[in-house]
Design brief:
Blueprint (H helix, E strand, L loop, with lengths): L1 H20 L2 H17 L9 H10 L15 H15 L13 H13 L5 H10 L6 H10 L14 H7 L4 E10 L6 E9 L5 E7 L4 H9 L1 H5 L8 E3 L11 H26 L2 H29 L6
Parallel strand pairs: 1-4
Antiparallel strand pairs: 1-2, 2-3
Helix pairs in contact: 2-3, 6-7
Length: 312
């Protein structure tokens, strides 16, 4: 009896020592496995509720990369759980929209466009009205665009939009926004990027939530600093008609330049005033090689934070 008691005490102490030496990641993995076993014991085909999904999604990150695909749920399933609340939040009510154009009208518009290269949208609208089909000029334009038929002045020429893009690709850039939803708060962060059409190289200019016209204009003004000497080679910009792309007029540019020059003049005057003081001159002579990089780094961080690079 005494030997059995000593054996049990020794085994228990050994288990405690093993527990003390384990890391928190190993404990989380054990909790994940125990939770999966509890779920499998319920029925032959387990059904996960919201509590099971929360536990599995929180603990699966502790597993090694090679073991994540061999668990009760795969990483694709966890990503699908995240996409569901995001899609539920951004689901808009269904809209009926305008009725589709009849196939007969589409065929007539296509035939008129190829047989009469000088007819515009208004002329086709009038000819269709004579045949008893009441359509708008915008409908004719939309049908021709869907069929990739150019408008009347350039319909009989060889220049197409695709050929124009290929010819001017080296001098074109395209800009747009894409968004990322936070996994916890579901907060939408917008990313402003510019892509070089020829090389498909993407410049990420900044992130914000939500974007507005002045912020977009300022980020676009920072693009020439990334392009350096290649900025003069770009002539065309492709963008949509979103409200974030405002027009920076001449008045705003003049005010910006005047304000910048005035601030530079004030900066130089203040620097000259402080540099001529004996105490400050001796401090700069002794610690200038350290203070100047710190000041420049601080100014750079301030510009990055104000520009919204870190999403603040």
């Amino acid at each position: 009896m005494v030997s059995r008691l000593l054996y049990l005490i020794f085994v228990r102490l050994g288990e405690w020592l093993v527990l003390l030496g384990r890391t928190s990641a190993a404990k989380d993995v054990e909790l994940l496995v125990l939770h999966e076993i509890a779920v499998l014991r319920r029925t032959t085909r387990p059904r996960l509720d919201w509590a099971d999904r929360a536990v599995l999604a929180a603990l699966v990150r502790r597993l090694p990369q090679m073991l994540r695909g061999h668990r009760l749920v795969t990483p694709g399933t966890i990503l699908r759980w995240h996409r569901r609340p995001v899609a539920r939040k951004w689901t808009y009510p269904s809209r009926t929209g305008r009725p589709p154009v009849d196939d007969t009208i589409v065929t007539l518009i296509e035939r008129m466009a190829w047989e009469n290269t000088g007819w515009g949208y208004r002329r086709m609208q009038g000819e269709l009205l004579k045949l008893g089909h009441r359509v708008a000029a915008s409908t004719v334009r939309r049908v021709l665009q869907r069929l990739r038929i150019p408008p009347a002045p350039t319909r009989n020429t060889d220049m197409s939009w695709r050929r124009f893009l290929r010819a001017q690709a080296t001098s074109m850039v395209a800009c747009d926004f894409f968004h990322v939803d936070c996994a916890v708060t579901l907060k939408r962060v917008h990313v402003f990027f510019v892509m070089e059409v020829a090389t498909r190289y993407v410049h990420v200019l900044g992130t914000t939530t939500p974007p507005d016209g002045p912020w977009t204009t300022q980020q676009a003004r920072n693009l020439p600093m990334d392009l350096d000497d290649r900025a003069d080679s770009f002539r065309f910009l492709i963008r949509d008609r979103a409200g974030q792309f405002t027009t920076a007029g001449t008045d705003g540019l003049v005010v910006f330049v005047v304000t910048f020059l005035a601030l530079v003049a004030v900066w130089c005057a203040v620097g000259r005033f402080f540099a001529t003081r004996p105490v400050i001159a001796r401090a700069l002579a002794r610690w200038g090689h350290t203070m100047l990089p710190i000041a420049l780094i601080g100014i750079g961080l301030l510009i990055l934070v104000e520009g919204g690079v870190f999403g603040l």
